[in-house]
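Hey,

The postdoc asked me to send both predictions to you directly instead of through the lab channel. I've kept everything plain text so nothing gets mangled by the mail client. Protein one:
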Amino acid sequence: MAKMVNVGFGNVISADRIIAIMTPDAAQTKRMVAHAKQEHTFIDATHGRRTRAVIVMDNGAIIVSGLMPVTIGDRVTRNAVNMIKELNEKGDKFDEEGLVDGNIGGKRHG
């Protein structure tokens, strides 16, 4: 099941599909947002608030949020840590690099 992350004001996105979380200040980031608006791949999740984070998704969508990038990043990280804890509780042994006893992503351990 895809892990979802709250990007503010009741909006959630798939954490697995995030490529980057950036501040909106850089000129290149502003150009990316303008291009996404032209290409209709822009999603505004600010609810009229100031844009504080620009999220790049793996499908090319650009999402703007009113939350700080570090806040969103912490939520994504917390989701990943919780997933590892849940799997460890079920009996699978995971660490930050993947499965310890078994095979995930072609990586063999144990």
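Protein two:
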Amino acid sequence: MRDIRPIVMPKWGLAMTEGTVLEWQASVGDDVSEGQEILDIETSKIVNSHESPVAGPFRRIVVEQGETVPVGALLGVCAPDSVSDEEVEAYVSEFLDNFDWEAASEDSGPEPEFADTSLGRLRYLRQGDGDGEPVILVHGFGGDCMGWMFNQSALAEEFTTYAIDLPGHGGSEKNVGDGTVSFLAESLAAFTEAVGIDRAHLVGHSLGGAAVAALALLRPGIAASLTLIAPAGFGEEINIEFIDGFIKQKRMRKLRSVLETLVADPALITDDMVEDVNKFKRLEGASEALEALRNGAFADGVQQYLLNRKLGEFDAPMQIIWGRSDRILPVAHGESLAEGAKAIILDEVGHMPHMEKSGEVNEAILSFIR
């Protein structure tokens, strides 16, 4: 039907099959712009704001607050005033009548793969089939490749992307060697060799930021660009209480309190996210791996691998993205960047900019690596 534009439940990461509408930020009658945050959606990982993929007058809310629907389900409708209410209602009815609810609930998207490297088996998720250098995404301490659920699909529209589970995390080998950033960099180098990547855009968060930067130093020429999101390695200070609490706490309430430190708005942390962390820590070798990383990368409660002492050695363009309200790694560490590096500081954002403000971070990454 003419000029009617649907807004559907997005798919953020392969694990997402459904989402719950928490709150509509747009009201019927509003003139919605493309990219505007129009509603909050709760997933199994975190609460996130959904940006409208379309522009125009907002005419109809289909899924109300508190309702859970599968990926692809119709949430709302935009249409110009020239389209009658009857035409909008007919469009909604036709969409709902033809939507395959069962198939949508079962669609899990691409499956993770495994690379057997010289330093152990690493799990990764590959998405996209773009030309040119691929994008490698590396998560932080205690995370996994699913931590890029709000980012990888957007990047994969233009680039081939690889989201990797670091050693000791997710489905990867639990041996972390001496637990240092250098070992993680060596593991990433082994991964690139195993899958045949000679050059890539490297994107890393927190401990993963230090790891991809160390990879760029270990293998000169491999980095087409570096995007470091709240990266470790730019100063000694770290919230070691968070690291210790992440490792030790097992009760939901206490672990939730630890995880809430990651974000500016504690309401973003879901029960499913807390349970997922506990499930990961129950995997054989996972807790021991985290302790080894704590003792290697953050011995004596301070960061041991300092990139700000090596900035003159980088041969790739670099940008840094940081949340001003980060309670894990101080945003002041970003001030140690080399001259000419691009810095983006996001207000009302904590240690997880790529999840708290995914739209802005995705655009910053794409603009930088294009």
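Summary for protein two, as requested: Residues 181-195 form the longest helix (15 residues).

Thanks,
C.
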